[in-house]
Amino acid sequence: xxxxxxxxxxxxxxxxxxxxxxxxxxxxxxxxxxxxxxxxxxxxxxxxxxxxxxxxxxxxxxxxxxxxxxxxxxxxxxxxxxxxxxxxxxxxxxxxxxxxxxxxxxxxxxxxxxxxxxxxxxxxxxxxxxxxxxxxxxxxxxxxxxxxxxxxxxxxxxxxxxxxxxxxxxxxxxxxxxxxxxxxxxxxxxxxxxxxxxxxxxxxxxxxxxxxxxxxxxxxxxxxxxxxxxxxxxxxxxxxxxxxxxxxxxxxxxxxxxxxxxx
Length: 263
Ligand SMILES: [Zn+2]
Hints:
Helix content: 40-55%
Mean pLDDT: 84
CATH architecture of the largest domain: 3-Layer(aba) Sandwich
CATH superfamily of the largest domain: P-loop containing nucleotide triphosphate hydrolases
Order of helices and strands: HEEHEEHEHEHHEHEHHEH
Bound molecules: zinc ion
CATH topology of the largest domain: Rossmann fold
Low-confidence stretches: 1-12
Oligomer: single chain
CATH class of the largest domain: Alpha Beta
């Protein structure tokens, strides 16, 4: 197995730490457990290895449970009515959802091509409007393309941060904050569905500000209207979020989760 690593050509571009993780999947019919298949003169990673690496990236990304099944393909536009209009924007609910879907797919394509401006996406809508689905679909696409993602549920993140603060004080920044700050792509789900205190505002500002300064993109979902943001998360963060990327509203007539139960 040690020798195997020497056969991996440069063009596969596997990071050193990944090479060490390649396991011997005895019984794989394609590579007979070597992890490598030959196509003509070219050696490439067997699909069994790609699946293992994807599974590992998914775990590191915090993409458990139902999140893993949310994709662009099963983002159902029929939940967004064509007979209701967002008057401010002059588009129907359906058109707005189509725009959000297109922007999300586009973000993944651009990122994968290496076009990285640090610009992200803000998905804005009430509970059950499909914004978490779209954010998870972005994460799943990027993971599949081999990128590093961290999916953060903001209210849970703040709770965890508070616990570590109570236990250790604020002298050393928690590992969780470090991971959130430095993830290649950070998904911040449900911003605004938490208590608003100077402490939570400060933590969110620290995170968002750091990422913007380092051109690291965030995909954010929020139930907050733009005009509510200043009060809720602080004027400084609100203004940085507006800088961060385009906002896409997602509106439905009825909570999609409730509609699914009735189907
Ligand atoms: Zn294999």
